Amino acid sequence: MSSYNVNSDHGEIDDSMKTFTDINCLLNEQHGYSHPKLLGEGSYGVVIRYRRPQNEGDVAVKCVFLHNVREGEGQLWFGLKHENIVPLLQWTIFESLNVVCFEMEVYEQDLFSAVRKAEYLQSADALQQLKMWLYQALSGINFLHERQLYHLDIKSDNVFISRKAKRALIADFTFLRRTSSHIRRYHIGLPHVYHPPETSRTRRNEKQIDGLCFDLWSYGVMTMELLTNFHIARSFPSDHRSADARYACMRNVLQEEAFTEKVQTALPAVEIIHGDILMALDFMHSFLRRHPTARTTAEVGLEHSFLGKGDIVNGEVDALWKFPSKYL
């Protein structure tokens, strides 16, 4: 299940069926959890769905070897209390297995899959629903940034959608870092094809990355993908493609005519007006800026006119997205 894909590589827990069986037994003994179902697997661990006793509903448990636990999950996640942050319910350490289990509610879908559901595609209110999800996701990011925390893996499959309230919640805190941390490229969870321009310069001289600015760029890219159904990772599956090639492709999508066509295709039941297009482009351009400190903060972005919660308009397009671009 994409919502709980902890990593794409097969890892240590995946290679040990004995560990998997032992975890099931211990969780059953301690908490009465039963009917395990594997939801995701990877190099950092597995995510298993369990049925809780006495009709308390299901729970998702992420099991990670202790030596693989990072600061974000091991120290920071439990203190994050916000309606747009997936809460950590509890954690259990099994020293005999050298494993820690993080428990959370089960979320049936993420934002990536939600915008592909027939219910969404056939709704005349799909754009308004997407705006609400984008607002909620940005609220979660702003909550982290206000506490000097950076997510470093913002993408649509790391934004879960609650079943009852259809509320968007930021998830997966594997790479969550403090502002005081020295953030290098190997601390980042987001695939390289989604990285902002400054990471290319960082690769050459190993300068520290500004996590706040990194998250803002990532959010802008996620917004573009959700509105247009254009996905960079599919267009550029290899991390070795040049940044210039990726930005050239994005530049084409961000031109008004091409963007309008893609939005209309992605939202077939919605009557798109010209003002929607202009505000959506303006909103994305406020985050997609070549210079990191020029990007709109999450706090300011929440007041943008596109989201319907304020009247802020950016009014500028970065030179990176203009024709001809001096950066090519």
UniProtKB/TrEMBL annotation:
Keywords: ATP-binding, Kinase, Nucleotide-binding, Serine/threonine-protein kinase, Transferase. The keyword Ubl conjugation does not apply. Gene3D superfamilies: Phosphorylase Kinase, domain 1 (3.30.200.20), Transferase(Phosphotransferase) domain 1 (1.10.510.10). GO terms for molecular function: ATP binding; protein serine/threonine kinase activity. It comes from the Eukaryota. ATP binds at residue 62. Belongs to the protein kinase superfamily. CMGC Ser/Thr protein kinase family. CDC2/CDKX subfamily. This is Protein kinase domain-containing protein.
